[in-house]
Structures are given as structure tokens and as C-alpha cells.
Amino acid sequence: QVHLVESGGGLVQAGGSLRLSCAASGNIFSINTMGWYRQAPGKQRELVAGITSGGSTNYADSVKGRFTISRDNAKNTVYLQMNSLKPEDTAVYYCNYEPWDARFESWGQGTQVTVSS
């Protein structure tokens, strides 16, 4: 079981920036993908960005050029730098850990990001 703890959410004005962090602990497989998902009220959870243990990244089209995902494998921590935030980025952001064996997938508790116009 892997435990994920997110931090860094909050309230920011449109055009501002926030940095989310997610620290993983427990029985972590060396080969894994970590990512950020978000869920806005009344909408389905969607992938925001993901990064493999090898450093390959992918992003939702809506955040490309504005958000950057990174990770520190020594600290088992993944980050999401969010710039040029828009009101439509308002959501609960969830950290996700997916090892090669998806049975051991884990989710964080979520952190609220609110962008005011």
C-alpha cells in the first residue's frame, strides 16, 4: 500500500500560479507513473498530467504550455507547477500513483484549487 499526501492547493486570482506537491510513502515500485487528476463539481475526474519514473510526461490539451509536472524520485515526490491559472482550472486535484501492477494503484485525498476571476 502506498500513501499519498498532497499539499499546495488554495485560492488564487486568474493569471496567478500555484505549485502542488504529492509525497508518496510505503511500498513503492521503482517502475511507476505518477500523475495529477482533477474533478470539478458536476464533472468527471480527468487526467491533468502524468510522468513516468523515467521522466516521460503527458498533459491534457487544456493545460499544455501552462502546467509542468516533475518528480524527484529520491524523495518519492511529484510536483505540478501551474501558471497562468484560469477560473476553469478550479477543481479538486488528486495525486495518483500507478505502478506496473495496477492492482496497487493509489490515490491521494485531494487538494482544492480555486481560481477567482
Summary tags:
117 residues, mainly beta, four-stranded antiparallel β-sheet, globular
Structural description of this entry:
With 117 residues, the protein is mainly β. It has no helices and eleven strands. The strands form two sheets. Strands 2, 4, 5, 6, 9, 10 and 11 form a seven-stranded mixed β-sheet that branches. Strands 1-3-8-7 form a four-stranded antiparallel β-sheet, with no helix packed on it. The radius of gyration is 14 Å and the shape is globular. The protein starts with a strand and ends with a strand. The model has no long low-confidence stretch (mean pLDDT 95).
Quick structural overview:
The protein is mainly beta and 117 residues long.
Helix content: under 10%
Structural class from helices and strands? Answer: mainly beta
State which percent range the strand residues make up.
over 45%
Number of distinct helices: 0
Major beta-sheet overview: 7 strands, mixed
Shape: globular
SSE arrangement, N to C: EEEEEEEEEEE
Unreliable segments (pLDDT under 50, ≥5 consecutive)? none
| Distance separating the two termini | 40 Å
User: What's the alpha carbon Rg, rounded to whole Å?
Assistant: 14 Å
Write down the overall mean pLDDT: 95
β-strand number: 11
